[in-house]
Design a protein that fits this description.
Oligomer: single chain
CATH class: Alpha Beta
Largest sheet: 5 strands, mixed
Shape: globular
Radius of gyration: 12 Å
CATH topology: Ubiquitin-like (UB roll)
CATH superfamily: Beta-grasp domain
Strand content: 25-35%
Distance between the termini: 49 Å
Number of domains: 1
Number of strands: 5
Structural class: alpha+beta
Number of helices: 2
CATH architecture: Roll
Helix content: 10-25%
């Protein structure tokens, strides 16, 4: 059974926190964003503190944690937008 590969890009303070711009992950077919986040937190535990506020983008759209990932997809993790 072949899995899928996704590239995750980290932005703003998330990138500063872990010192990495992007990581690649291999996941089973039909994996969700939630499953991807668990793998990310296993590798980068400091990010778990941002779990409730993190914004997740797939392509040009924001997606929720039930979004099913596709192979070669680029996922963006962003902190909440600061406004004033």
């Amino acid at each position: 059974m072949n899995g899928i590969k996704v590239r995750v890009q980290f932005y703003a303070q998330l990138r500063d926190l872990i010192g990495i711009r992007e990581l690649e992950f291999e996941l089973p077919q039909r994996a969700t964003v939630r499953e991807l986040l668990e793998q990310i937190y296993a590798q980068q535990p400091a990010l778990r503190a941002y779990d409730k506020s993190i914004l997740i983008g797939a392509g040009f759209e924001f997606v929720d944690r039930n979004y099913i990932l596709h192979t070669s997809e680029e996922i963006a993790l962003m902190p909440p937008v600061q406004g004033g």
